[in-house]
Amino acid sequence: MTELVRVLRGLRRLTDDPRDAFTHRLRIGLAVAALILILSLLR
């Protein structure tokens, strides 16, 4: 569990630029959505 938390903390982007933060969150969201889609198609 602690390894998962370490990976998730590595995905965080600490920036003051709202545009950069938004694009980073959008990329992470799309990656998670793609992972969910792939896993659902494998079942």
Key structural traits:
43 residues, mainly alpha, 2 helices, transmembrane, membrane, transmembrane helix
- Structurally, how many domains make up the residues? 1
| Helical residues, percent | over 70%
Unreliable spans: none
Order of helices and strands: HH
Structural class: mainly alpha
Strand content: under 5%
Q: What's the number of extended β-strand segments?
A: 0
Distance between the termini: 25 Å
User: What is the alpha-carbon Rg in Å?
Assistant: 13 Å
Mean pLDDT, to the nearest integer, reads 86
Judging from the principal axes of the Cα atoms, what is the shape? flat
Task: Give a verbal description of the structure.
It is a single chain. The protein is mostly helical and 43 residues long. The chain has one domain (2-42). Helices cover 81% and strands 0% of the residues. The chain has two helices and no strands. The protein has helices spanning 2-11, 18-42. The chain starts with a helix and ends with a helix. Keywords: Membrane, Transmembrane, Transmembrane helix. The chain crosses the membrane at residues 24-42.
List the helices and strands and how they pair.
Blueprint: H1 2-11, H2 18-42
Provide a compact summary of the structure:
The chain crosses the membrane at residues 24-42. This protein has 43 residues and is mainly α.
